[in-house]
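Risk register update: the risk of archive-format incompatibility is retired. Evidence:
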Amino acid sequence: MQSNSRHAVAAGFLGWTLDAFDFFVVVFLLDTLALQFGVPKTRIIATLTATLALRPVGAIIFGMLADRYGRRIPLMANVVYFSIIELLSGFSTTYTQFLILRALFGIGMGGEWGVGASLALENTPRKWRGVLSGLLQSGYSIGYLLAAIATRTVLPHFGWRWMFWIGALPALLALYIRRNVPESAAWKEHRVANFAAMFRAAKGHAQGFLYLVLLMTFMMFLSHGTQDLYPDFLKHEHGIAATTVPYVAMLYNVGAVIGAIIFGQLSQKIGRRYSMIAALVVSLLVIPMWAFGGSLVILAAGAFLMQVGVQGAWGIIPIHLNELAPDAVRGLMPGLAYQFGILFASPTNSIEDALRDRFGYSWALAGFEIFVMVVLTIILLLGRENHGRSFHSGDLLVEKE
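Archived output:
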């Protein structure tokens, strides 16, 4: 793999890692922030929903800029933006301030994935797409892992505000991108003349876009439904000590990284959709351990295997969406479908919280995810893929392995 490809993948990976860290910090601070701002914990959970709901706005803004003016500069601007918002979150003195800042953070989070993924994968040789797609998406799990580590190292000694202040460090990534990452050759080849041409290209693929939104909505149900409330679930349903929960989170995020890379590479052999279905089967089989385990060991093992499957399926998403997107709007369409999915799935935490009141925490999580996994399998079976599609004119349409 050429140096340009490595730098592009590194930029996308690091951007998504640091973005995810900034998001998951809140997951570990639900009780702390509720006490700090004097509000019920459900109000803090609502800030997670606000972040998720504003992500499509970022996908539209930064995705359009990326398709019109190139990938590099919008990606740098995005990284600086979400770093500043994360820094300001640590200065919040009221719940209202915190809610507004977390909503604004959603705009930055929504813009990073689509632009970073298109830049990275357009610079990637086709034979490496599967595994590097998994590596790129695993940045999300690494960010979650780093948030768990910060909870055990930063929070006890420096307090919750420092959890957000260190989130300003990603701004330095913009310097790395400016120095080392070249502009995408595929973008230069297929760049649109104006925004009107971009809209025409997107309109011509409306049906395919709607399918991607449906797929991403249920993928968001899958990931956020198994991750966001799980630390809280371990503490309050199974009585796991608050000091132990971050270690469990570290473990299952290691599983997530392993799954993303394994199933990403598998998708090079058996296709994108069948690899995702295989990953879903893994997650479905471990639900009894994950939700109903009778000991810390069983719960931790179930959580590890759950994320092997969940993020195994997710590891294929960056390349699957980019291969399905039209050349002219590859910066916009995958990211926008991704973020519309999160918009429609943004009530996930609130839904599971409501189900908990009626059916108990274990059945709320398990029942919700069983439904999601079954529907996702059907969506994938009814869908299509462009495995090995070229991003450059004149290349073969199917990669020669």
